[in-house]
User: Fold this.
Amino acid sequence: MNTVLEIKNLVKFYPNVEAVNGVSFAIEKGTCFGLLGPNGAGKTTTIEVIEGIIPRTSGDILYKGKKRDARFREEVGIQFQNTELPAFLTVKETLETFRNLYGRKSNLNELIETCYLQDLLKQDNRKISGGQKQRLLLAMALANDPELIFLDEPTTGLDPQSRRHLWDIVHHIKSRKKTVVLTTHYMEEAQVLCDTIAIMDYGKIIASGPPEKLLEEQCSAIAVGLNEHIDEKILGMIPGSWVMTKTGVEIYPEDLNDCIKKLIDMNIDLSTLTIRPQNLEDLFLKLTGKRLRA
Ligand SMILES: Nc1ncnc2c1ncn2[C@@H]1O[C@H](COP(=O)(O)OP(=O)(O)OP(=O)(O)O)[C@@H](O)[C@H]1O
Ligand SMILES: [Mg+2]
Assistant:
């Protein structure tokens, strides 16, 4: 194993908020690590402390087994959750300016092609769309041909084509044995891209591992869907949980056979029954609950 990043008991307290409260994980070279969690869970704070953008309260951060130094700054690429681009510069000028800050540089034409910026080069930064800005920010994060890339919600607000395009870029980065740390609110994205995920809530990691393994360990295997509105009293008799949907109900039973038997006993029409495996979104809601965060 070749550990690129090792985080031990990381803590970041603000005066009134324990934003990160004892987070530990390790990331292997050439893998994609995903931090998931509700709004305010502490994802951005965690990665910005690791990046060295904000100071930590305590804990250890090791890059390739050593404390971060000038080499770390030279070898990482960062796409922030929110970034203001300089006004009065074109996309090409922005990219060139940013690239010139580094000793080690990506090939400019490859960067433009990878991030699909060819048609935007002469455009003023103030006149690009949200999705186009995301592509430019990604190109800026890759400008120094980084070994370790941090992407904080890189696909928020993107259309489905652009999102899949970013997935292709991440696969391409990984195929070159580079390491990616990303945050996302899209569970499908985490499942497609991440070798390991950590689910954070209230500043702590509450579950971590390969997505498939977490699903196997933490979720009962199935959900039962019915296009029937069923009385809550009946649902209350089935061990597990459930949610109402637009056309009926979805049940997450502890025991599938018992659930179906109870539905038959109650004379529920099962002609619209569907059974599907549980997914990462089900697991996320199970672990973090359904209440909105302050
Ligand atoms: N500069 C700051 N001063 C005080 N509190 C802060 C500061 N930055 C963040 N926080 C608080 O720390 C907590 C974690 O915030 P953080 O931005 O890390 O969450 P997040 O998981 O990235 O959320 P989101 O999904 O909304 O991006 C929140 O309660 C937030 O209000
Ligand atoms: Mg954030």
Notes: The pocket of magnesium ion (ligand 2) is lined by residues 43-44, 81, 152 (CB under 6 Å). The CA atoms of residues 90 and 123 lie 5 Å apart. The domain at 220-277 is CATH 3.30.70 (Alpha-Beta Plaits). The chain has two domains: 3-216, 220-277.
